[in-house]
């Protein structure tokens, strides 16, 4: 870790410690009520049992005591709870205990946290897109610049806290090759019903390919969030608000120069690789203001309002002199605006207001709303901005017998030509969902003016029918969950082999069966697997590039040691994608696009990647060790690719620590 990053971490630690000292004035401790808690099937009881014993928290009359036998207040993960706005809005408030489990702790970077279901450029913070087709949540206009969505914390994913003591959590991850991340989180109750907090997230990831110096970073991210939650004394009024800002800077390299272009360029040389671009950069700046508040007019009947103000500034800069000009001459030969350099700038902004009412009648929940969005996209080479005004109405319905048996339905109609309908059935043995949608292409796909690309389109809305189902067969020592996804996508908009926005004239049908399994041998040895097979047919099938086989598997030992003073997981991960013609990446547009199947330029070969990991917890502190790509240079090929001309990681050791403080 560089001296600059170390100094930053040390200063933040001192600040958080000072805030905690300041926060130690006595506060009134409200009664602790029972709260709901979601436990995933792969979570182990051993982790939380150890925490319970260490915190000295016992049960009395169905409630946890905050005061032990010596009248000393005991704070810990079970007295610091968090919740999400979506549960408040759906009248299904669940306050979650802090995660102290070891399962998946070694998956610290965003792509790994997704279960490796994203295709990136081989380093933390680089452009990424989902491997599988994703059903849209927003049916209205979006910017279209989504390459860095994975690293941005959207307002609806922010945690709100209820803390009985000041809470600070510090997570530091030191990746091999100076790929570093830091997460700092603080929250405290000002009063029993008013909580404030903030988070700080940073990435400093050195270039994996051809770095010039130790701190020659490929990714520099700085992001922070301020959040607050407030409830009135009579419990009728509730307010949730947050402000977030993310500045994500990436040094674009264009990938490794193919040996077919330069015979002296070789793959899998990493630090010695020859790359196309040395002076190109992309910046994605996002800023969100978000407010949700509700008021209970009558018992079980509330009115609510949601306000959002968002902006996204996207910039790409590169000189067009040698050697960078060679890349653009080959892949983006047009020069529409500037001959000596490319500076593409796009600004997207939107305002949203949603008003509605909701309530409960016995086991039935209902909701109705009206929503208005207005915004625009403006580029530095556009004469007129691409503006939009969208009015939609919608609602939701839920019937719930108990936590295990329920149905949900929701819908939104964007006047006059877009909609989304979603239904879900949940039981102890089966979950099934159906989604039907007609959603808008992005602003960037409709109108774009850049130095190398330009278009003005009038695309039709994109249609989707999706059916998903999973059978749940969970037993004491093992579980198996077969699942199936069926998609029909019509009028799909994508970026073709010429890096132009295009719309499919035919439908694509996707059949994706899968399975998740977990086996437990003797309560200490575990084997978990997730696998999918994808079959795509129809006239629009060539517009989707998805590996036929996608699989992750893990075998590990999980057990407490030394009288449960140490909890440990040690094991091996393996992931595999079969060979496919993965989408290539265009830095100037910040978009993934189709390779030309006729030329068959670059097939991303099927390659199993093995990682060794060790997760441990001592008291409340968790640590991880992970050695990436254990089989580096051990197979018939020396490595693997994640995107055409972008190699995956070589063998590197990562270290991480999570350190929560509760008083």
UniProtKB/TrEMBL annotation:
<feature type="signal peptide">
    <location>
        <begin position="1"/>
        <end position="23"/>
    </location>
</feature>
<feature type="region of interest" description="Disordered">
    <location>
        <begin position="32"/>
        <end position="64"/>
    </location>
</feature>
<protein>
    <submittedName>
        <fullName>Putative porin</fullName>
    </submittedName>
</protein>
<feature type="compositionally biased region" description="Polar residues">
    <location>
        <begin position="42"/>
        <end position="53"/>
    </location>
</feature>
<keyword id="KW-0732">Signal</keyword>
<dbReference type="Pfam" id="PF14121">
    <property type="entry name" value="Porin_10"/>
</dbReference>
<dbReference type="InterPro" id="IPR025631">
    <property type="entry name" value="Porin_10"/>
</dbReference>
